[in-house]
Amino acid sequence: MSDNLSLKAFVVLMKSTKSVQEKVKEDISAHGMRISDFTVLEALYHKGRQTIRQISEAVLINTGSITYVIDKLETKGLLERMNCKEDRRVVYIQITEEGKQLMDEIFPEHQQVIENIFSSITDDEKEMLVNVLKKVGQK
Question: Known SUPFAM superfamilies for this protein (predicted)?
Answer without folding.
Answer: Winged helix' DNA-binding domain
